[in-house]
Each structure stands twice: as structure tokens, then as C-alpha cells.
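Question (not urgent): is this output format expected?
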Amino acid sequence: MQDENREEQTPVPGTEPAAPPVQPPAEPEEVVSWYVRPDRAREVQDCYVQPRPMPAAAIPKAAPEKKPHSRRGLWIFLIVLAVLVGTVLGVAVVTALRSGEPSDGGYDGGEDASSIVDIFGGDIPTIPRADIDPSVRFYCQDAAEEKLTIQQVYAAVNPATVLVVAEMGEKASIGTGVILTEDGYIVTNAHVIADGQSVLVVLADARQYEAELVGFDSAEDLAVLKAVDAEDLPTAVLGDSDECWVGDTVYAIGNPLGVELRGTLTQGIISAIDRRVTMDGKAMTMLQTTAALNNGNSGGPLINEYGQVIGINTMKMSNSMADAESATVEGLGFAVPTGRAVTVINDILATGAFHGIPSIGVNVAEEQQPDGTYRPVIDSVTENFGAEAVGLQRGDVILSADGTAVYSNYDLLRARRAHIVGETITLTVQRDGQTLDVEVYLYPVVEE
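Got this back:
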């Protein structure tokens, strides 16, 4: 038996059960570069100054004529600062490992160890807001028949991978983003733009745009930006993370340590699927990968061998109490799977916020029918959800969803993912030889 969300649900009126204690071998951290004022410094113990100038392609070219109220000088400053930010943080991590001094909130050998630092920190961005657009809707696409070479993957996805610089007054946050539409809708991590006042995105070809914030969700750690006055941008294709298998080859593209190393490609495998990782008491279901992720990779794409984005890189795991005797932690990166991310993105685009994972309110099991086909058959109906409201019953055979035939639980899941909370899905079911069509309202689930 399997529910249509692939995870056990609890209806909204219920109380969310406590997550089981997690005992991580090391403390995960967000993959984002920061500049911190000296009076707020924590693990930074040595100061490092970039010995070389940043690449010319990363420096915004001067405008042919000065425009009134131009902020180009501010952004040039931020990008130059970004180089130093990434480098300082990189040295800070190395210094902490060598010194053996734990950072604040580090792993102390206890049973919980806080698991992951608070990647959003309660800081609300004041970035100018973009209008929502309910007409824009994203879907996960099936994998192509032929795999691409690593060079082809990079050529396909790198142009759609952007540097994200969020100005925060006395500091700046540097991350990565993925372009989803030609007119500039971009997905990144929420912690990249947390507490941001304005955002600049820079493409691989050095084009740059100011970006507005469509919306974000800190619990899901996803944000959607809109590049201002953008057109004809390269785009990435969203693949289906549910088609991944442990051992699949994957790639990551991003901006580790800031501007200097932007556009870096790393390779690895999917090392776990549906990995539950606890972050500040919130459990997230992630793809685990061995592809190298470093500070600045946040919000960037995790890519399959077909050149499709299957995850949004979000965090890595590293030593939090490092000394000569502690084991080195390598190859533990995590990404938000696209199967979940598309629902969050679509909700943000339609409403400006995320309202939860929509649910039909049934548990289903695949059973063979008299004609030899397999269909999802309702095994149980959840109270206080849409399925109960329209009278669906145990034993009902689901023939189609929104007019498309369904032959598996996965087909039903894919149909549901095309919707957001508050919409309805049309199900055609068979009961006692009769066929009925029902409109099922999609309520949000409270997840464990």
C-alpha cells in the first residue's frame, strides 16, 4: 500500500508528530558564501586577501553613457566583495579544521547536535517584489533516450546557471541559481537571499540583471526570482527526480567560494534517495550526492546524465569539531529533489508563497484488472480531505486523472504534482462496474 504522496500523511486538523532524534556523524552546513563584519566573526580566524584579480568576464562592463540613479558602481563593489567573501570563508573553514575549535552550534557529541545550522536565521528579505504569474507552470519531464557526455551536459546547463549576489547592507550573500524561463524566472535557495535588500544575477556570458523576488519558503529553502527586463535567456530543463536510482551519475554546476571559481562543474553519483535530513528541527527529504558542493553552490543545479536538473543543491555535511583525530567528512551533499521543488515553485509563482504539498487524501495500491492492465486502487480514504468529501471509497479503481489514463501510483502522483493547494483534480473512477467523474479539492498535508 502506498499513499498518493509517497509519504505517510496527517490531515491538517491533526497534530504534527515529533521527528525522531537524528544522530548525524557530522554537522551539515548551508552551501552559501558570507561576508561577516569583524565584530560578528565566529569561525574566521585568519584574514586572506585575494592575490589575483577576478576574471574580466565577471566584471560588469561600463555603460556607454552614465544614466541617472545608476547602481552599477554598487554592484561592481558587491561582485569584487564577493571574490573576497568566498575566499575568506574558504580559509575560515580550513582554519577551523586545523585549529580544532568548534564553531557556534557545532556538534558536541550529544544526541541531536542541532543537526544543521539555521540556514534562514529568521531574516526576512526586503528585496523588491515581482508580480506573481499564475499562468506559468512547471512540470518534470521524462528522461531522454540517449545520455549526454559530460561536455554536452555542461554546454546545455551552464548557460542557464547564474551567479546570485544578494546585497545585505554591510555584507553580501553569494549563491547560484537556475534559469527556468526565457524571460528570467530563476530558482535558488531561500537562504541565499535571506535578509537581502537587492539582488543581482550574472549569467555565464557576463550579462547581468537586477532581480526581484517573486516569493520564498524558508522551510523548503527555495526562492523564485525574476530578472528585470530579461528576454531570450538560456533555460534549463527540469527532469524527474523520482526516476533517479542510487548509483546514477550526476553533475553539479555552481559558484564555489564566490566569483573567482564560478561555473565550476563537479561529478558524482546519487548516493541516497529520500534521505531525511533534520534542519533546525525541520526534517527535509533530500537527494544525497557525492558531487562536490562548496560554499557558493547553494541554489545551483544537480543534473542527471540527460542534461536535466533533478535537484537544487542546498547543503553539505562537514566536520563541526575538527581536530587531528577527527575523521574527514567528504562527499556528503544534499539537494532538494525536483519532484518536490516543482510544487513549491508553482505555488510561489501562482500565489507568492508556498501553502504545502497538495493531497487527494487516499492511499492506493496497484492491482491488476480483468483486462490485464494495472491501475491504482484506493485502499483507504483519509478523513477531512477532498477524497472523503466527494465520496471516494476503498476499492474504487482510478482510471484517469485530469483526462489522462493512470496505470500506476506514479502516474497518479505526477498528475497531482501538476496542481497546487486549493485547486481541484478530476478523477475518473470505476466502482461496481460503473464509471464516475469526481472533482477532488486538494488540501495541504502536515508532514512528519
